[in-house]
Amino acid sequence: MNIKSVIxxxxxxxxxxxxxxxxxxxxxxxxxxxxxxxxxxxxxLGANPDQVPLLFLAAPLTGxxxxxxxxxxxxxxxxxxxxxxxxxxxxxxIISSLxxxxxxxxxxxxxxxxxLWVLDVFGNVSMEPFRAFVTDKLPDSQVNRGFVMQSxxxxxxxxxxxxxxxxxNNVFHLENTATLGHIPENVQYSFYIGAFFFFxxxxxxxxxxxxxxxxxxxxxxxxxxxxxxxxxxxxxxxxLKNMPKRMQIxxxxxxxxxxxxxxxxxxxxxxxxxxxxGGIDASDPVYARGADFGSLTxxxxxxxTFLFALVLPKIADLLGRKTTHAICLLIGAIGLISVAxxxxxxxxxxxxxxxxxxxxxxxxxxxxxxxxCLPKDKIGVYMGIFNFFIVLPExxxxxxxxxxxxxxxxxxxxxxxxxxxxxxxxxxxICFLFIREGKKTNEIxxxxxxxxxxxxx
Length: 457
Fold this sequence. Notes:
Blueprint: H1 3-8, H2 14-44, H3 52-55, H4 58-75, H5 86-102, H6 109-137, H7 140-170, H8 185-208, H9 216-224, H10 228-241, H11 245-276, H12 285-319, H13 321-337, H14 348-362, H15 365-370, H16 379-407, H17 413-434, H18 442-456
């Protein structure tokens, strides 16, 4: 934390922090609907299990290309009405919602894959500035709570989104099976509902939360920025070269954390359908029940994320951010590895409890650990660069894991999920052993006290 942040970032009320986080509730519908259902959609449209990773390439590749550029552009944007980050929230929400509405009408693999690219490009446009939004608005003393509130909204949105196919079938009695080349009716309506919540939630944040206007010095800097995207790429490369040491280590933790999640999203739902329920393919009612139940347990881990996010700030204050994160990653790894030993379907809830605890921490602690070591005028750029270390392992998995799945794992979906758990263990070890958390210096604390005394005079 620097002196500038002490002066310019007053503490916000709980209602204000909730308002600025509601948009993430809607954005999560876009991500969780695809995570829980795209593997099922692809297999229903004729894909083999070893083709699924490549078809998921849209999310990481668009994140790699879009997030740092949007971060740079939003750092250098100011609109007198909509501010710095909120224009990107709106553009992303509008186009992502349209892609969600169109997805259920996919009649071929190429169409579903193309719409996923559109959804992920503009999902990233909407999502990336939300991370910088927390650092823009909150003082360091509330950063934990800001990112944890985003985790809470992600957990709430994800739990509803992932459970929608099950709800559409069991409550509203929509069909959950379809012939080859078609998407089940319960999945179709889930995407329509997701489009509504994506749009409505983001626009709620846009119209209930204001941004701090830039200083005259910052406006002058923005006006001097020339060159558009080419200038942005140069700025991104420079920032990448000069990454703070703590960011380098946290990035390595991210690099080994996220493959575990990707492999779960690639294969978990269909693994439950085939390995736990004994289904054959998308036209088999047993497979359909298994896939719906898998989505329901994914919804359950999002509920755990929502609940655990309520106590996570207290745990982080007590144990420190890095220790908290390392423990949560280990709990999540145990959850993923133990999926392969399940014989009673209800034991999947126990496995997903561990994943939900890890997910709450993954969505908040790495960003909270970063908050004090990044330059204030490049927050968006660095948050975009940080995303490199989330998407690069997914790109590697998308391009190479299909071969491994076919030739080494014999298309065993559960082995893939277990492998992801092993990588999460490695991430926890790196986090605990190598991250050094910064502490506020006496000089900064005394400066803060002096400023507060001056304001009270």
